[in-house]
Amino acid sequence: MEIDATDRRILTSLQKDGRMTNAELSEQVNLSPSACHRRVQRLEAAGVIRGYVALLDERKMSRPTTVFVEITLSGQADEVLDAFERQVARIPDLLECHLMAGTADYLLKILARDTEDFARIHRQYLSRLPGVAQMHTSFALRTVFRTTAIPV
């Protein structure tokens, strides 16, 4: 799918405020409401826009502690990777899991209430993950910058 400058303006605006009305969006991107609506529908149908979400405040949800966990597996065989990925996807406190190139095989991002809560997560879930050889945990002291917007 070809994404032109108008599509980019639409995507930029929707990433800032996915709840704006079509009338507001069409005004921001300088299109008629019907043309704007057709473009948004095309972007949705093509999967460029995957969905719309509400971004929650971690502190107000009592999850102020961001923890990064680097995991090195005992091997790289498909069975080891598949087993790990199936189990890690079941961790309810997990926000992200990335297969990495570098010193660790996987990088996890977890939200916890505090260090005691992370100890619970570690005990109930992380310590039971299959194929883990090493695990290194880092606690974020402060988030300096964060965005969900993809550069368009």
UniProtKB/TrEMBL annotation:
GO molecular function: sequence-specific DNA binding
Domain HTH asnC-type, first and last residues per copy: 3-64
Keyword field contains DNA-binding: yes
Keyword Cytoplasm: no
Top-level taxon of origin: Bacteria
GO BP: regulation of DNA-templated transcription; response to amino acid
GO CC field: cytosol
The protein's name in its UniProt record: AsnC family transcriptional regulator
Organism of provenance: Allgaiera indica
